[in-house]
Write a structure and sequence with these properties.
homotetramer, 313 residues, alpha+beta, Beta-lactamase, five-stranded antiparallel sheet, three-stranded antiparallel sheet, 45% helix, Beta-lactam/transpept-like (chains A, B, C, D), EC 3.5.1.2 (chains A, B, C, D), Glutaminase (chains A, B, C, D), acetylation (chains A, B, C, D), glutaminase activity (chains A, B, C, D)
Chain lengths: 313, 313, 313, 313
Amino acid sequence: MSSRPGTSSLTDGTEDIQAWLEDIHQQARTRLGQGHVASYIPALSTQDANRFGIAICTNDGRVYTAGDAREPFSVQSISKVFLLTLSLRAFGNALWERVGLNPSGMPFNSLAQLEAERGKPRNPFINAGAIVVADSLVSAFATPVQVIQDAARRLSGNASILIDRDVLASEWKHRSRNAAMAYLTKAFGNINNEVDDVLYAYFACCSLSMNCVDLAVALNYLAAEGYSRKTDEQFVEAELARRINSLLFTSGMYDAAGEFAYRVGLPAKSGVGGGIVAIVPGQFSVCAWSPALDDNGNSVVAQYALELMSDRL
Amino acid sequence: MSSRPGTSSLTDGTEDIQAWLEDIHQQARTRLGQGHVASYIPALSTQDANRFGIAICTNDGRVYTAGDAREPFSVQSISKVFLLTLSLRAFGNALWERVGLNPSGMPFNSLAQLEAERGKPRNPFINAGAIVVADSLVSAFATPVQVIQDAARRLSGNASILIDRDVLASEWKHRSRNAAMAYLTKAFGNINNEVDDVLYAYFACCSLSMNCVDLAVALNYLAAEGYSRKTDEQFVEAELARRINSLLFTSGMYDAAGEFAYRVGLPAKSGVGGGIVAIVPGQFSVCAWSPALDDNGNSVVAQYALELMSDRL
Amino acid sequence: MSSRPGTSSLTDGTEDIQAWLEDIHQQARTRLGQGHVASYIPALSTQDANRFGIAICTNDGRVYTAGDAREPFSVQSISKVFLLTLSLRAFGNALWERVGLNPSGMPFNSLAQLEAERGKPRNPFINAGAIVVADSLVSAFATPVQVIQDAARRLSGNASILIDRDVLASEWKHRSRNAAMAYLTKAFGNINNEVDDVLYAYFACCSLSMNCVDLAVALNYLAAEGYSRKTDEQFVEAELARRINSLLFTSGMYDAAGEFAYRVGLPAKSGVGGGIVAIVPGQFSVCAWSPALDDNGNSVVAQYALELMSDRL
Amino acid sequence: MSSRPGTSSLTDGTEDIQAWLEDIHQQARTRLGQGHVASYIPALSTQDANRFGIAICTNDGRVYTAGDAREPFSVQSISKVFLLTLSLRAFGNALWERVGLNPSGMPFNSLAQLEAERGKPRNPFINAGAIVVADSLVSAFATPVQVIQDAARRLSGNASILIDRDVLASEWKHRSRNAAMAYLTKAFGNINNEVDDVLYAYFACCSLSMNCVDLAVALNYLAAEGYSRKTDEQFVEAELARRINSLLFTSGMYDAAGEFAYRVGLPAKSGVGGGIVAIVPGQFSVCAWSPALDDNGNSVVAQYALELMSDRL
């Protein structure tokens, strides 16, 4: 939101940043023990609540880590950023005829609003919105899941990124609420493919297993005016990167986006796997991860780490 | 949201900025004729839809104007920024026990959400939230309306700012919906004073008559890390200014905050009088005004002017 | 709903009916101790939860009682039947342009539905509906409260019926939620008088103090095809009496109308003072009263007494 | 709702009743041309809007008809009465732990209320409620569709009643909204079988093709204290028949149950195929059918015929 003073420390030198990051990690880990690991699917509920990692990727390509930054976890809703970016690359502004841009003001899996607004989801970061985005990718690509997995691999530079088949099977088995949303959206004509195909693609992306470094590197294009250093391409235009950041700012943290914006003031996307990616435009991307969540579905410790980081920027 | 490149033009020199502003004004006025002047109270409906002014106040205190920048208009919901700032100065974070921080996802005058969330308004920029903030000021000050008017005068450096008594009378006469919100909030124990007293204070602030220059100057503290050049004081702490900007970003533009953030990417607050104040942190504050509104209650031409300005920053 | 077999006992003779009623009273009082006395206004909360009376008024004018049938209590929402009847006498079907006829499916004091349906209350037995009916009577009569009190006196044959001024003062003091409903309705143009005047009339009727005998006698016209034996007049036409009974059947028991219809199967109206009036068309009217309420606001013991009575009809 | 006077004509003699019915048919057909044939599935939209039949089945087993009373049509929601009766026979009051008894106050296919009330449908006559009832029958019977079809055949005495496979295929193809409801209910744990199996059973029953005579005869047990003359058995207990009638009275006519109760005053169930079955307890059952519907989904002409009939009872 601002050109903050005093961010020079991040460009001073490797040692300073590393120490700064470890200090944040040290302080944030005092909140381990708070919150609850996601239980809505069994495959997530077995995560160790005491894990906590954090990774930074600066716009000049350096990576700094603290804690469990290289342990893979389920990206869950963070994948909505990949879905959105790929759909905007394929369809441009035409996507916004099918999905809105405004905060929802409702829980991320609400059907009441979807019904009242006749199947046009409020934004691409609530479940219904991401399902519509997934539908667009099922239309655009013969193998949409492959396309998304490839994008995650190329943007992160980690060719071994996989979909966690246990998580995917668990998502599928417990798909009732997401299926309800997809069918309701289809009832209003806003899903073009078979619901089962769309849900499969959506769940597969949620089930990507990535670590903090992977995610910080892969989403660095949002900090770097759309440029991906890994693929050495303008992944999206600078203006579009800014716009996605605005959307993350207003709607990236489930129903607590406003509180997070007030406290932390950075564009960010969380997932119920415990990960949060945040963007400091022009400087760096960061991913923090710790499985225990607050009532809004956001990682307690990862949020606190980002709040500490924001305070010190 | 970002440290934008190419903003140096604003500090280059008076002539360049003035030409830049006039150019924006020239282009934006092509949308005069679109939208509709607010009709919910008669006193506003008589405004001339063809008026259009814009004023910038840079953080070093220079003011640039184009069009009808010195014609007074009814500030309406822009006053919610003054209300919030004064209440945060008086009560600090205790205010957030009574008002939320998250986007509403509902029209600004909705009762359904207020009822579902048991009288705690979603944020201080929807009507119910501003009424609770007004209630806090009625508790804090013997003459709350005087306090708010004085603040507007001192921050803008314009001692002749007045409450428009015709607008105030019209607001009062057509108070039914706001009265419903206030009584519902009181039913949940979140209004401490008499509803009539709170509504009077709330309407009086909405009825302040200010011009683009007044507003750009008065709210420049949000661009200048909390510092008011007019009163030469730290009006709010730098961190609090950043936080208010975050709130404006997520909830300042009625139910279109997300769209405005996506398109324009600046913290802003609109009023149904046709004014919009936007903040470019670290650089300047701006107020655009033109009475005709879109379906969300935001001025068509003022929004477009800010979008053009954002594109050129 | 049916031509029940075995109702002949009611016409057999005075002794049989009296014994039958006392037996029901004896069995129903085993549920004293369940439920909670209304606490939303202090003036009601002091009622003795152990009081329990029941009175029957047959269509040929005989009255039978058991327990505290002559102890006055606050009629509360039972007054909505008087309000409706008087308004239908004054306005006929024109009333239905302002109030609906369908069950609400929401709590009796909900604002969400009233907002969604643009100020047209679902039916005359939810608060918002009764407030609109009261508004019609404020328009129709110079002294509406006097008119209603007179009607209650004449129909019951008890000239000493009074408005309980303590209850009225308490209702007024705690009027916030009803005021919110009234103002919201007015915001949609469906209240024609000053909200304060309408609420006063509405609360005054709620505050009528009547006993079981009064109410059973006064509302006997609904059992007797519209004819009032006390005033010896066709108070409403037979068809209108049937229609009011249908409304009571579908909407008379707050949000539990369907359950009550399923279990008891009689048109009925309850009040939070603990009274319930029920109608056995063609035979008799009955009023049971005991202050402790279930979660829907209906008297536990009075409901049970009516259920027992229905089983034995 | 009442022991109506003047119903003796129905038992006087065959000729009188026949003339009376033809007279009603003659008058009601003046409204042919109003309303619109259901279009939500193609298989229904091709119905001829000018068809209109009516059939009465008296409790002593005589059948009277007028117009197209022997032309089969799609029973649609009228099948919910069969579903409910069969489930109550199988599960008794245990069913009411899964489905409510109160009017919905919302459109019959609403998801908002289902979500707010955590997957417990308001009553068995809204779609979500009937889907839960269907789920109970899928649990209870190896071949639930066969069981329901057999019941319809035996109760009506028409062994040639069939499921219309075109309608069933069309329902299945356009199942999105019902699928959304079923999945949402399952998400709350209130569907025990596979959603596809439950929907298939539900749609199969909706797709039963029956005529006015079939339906009047089959549902006569509700008029005859639970006794079916065709099968010569107490199909349900007398008390249960009364209770089902109460439910029909409060919730049988979609979101217009209150209006229908006020105007007509009979327990009734409508379907979007244009049929309406109504019950005159103790006397007869009646089925009217004409395809064109009003905005609530109830046949315009069939409703009017029942209103005329009620006026003349």
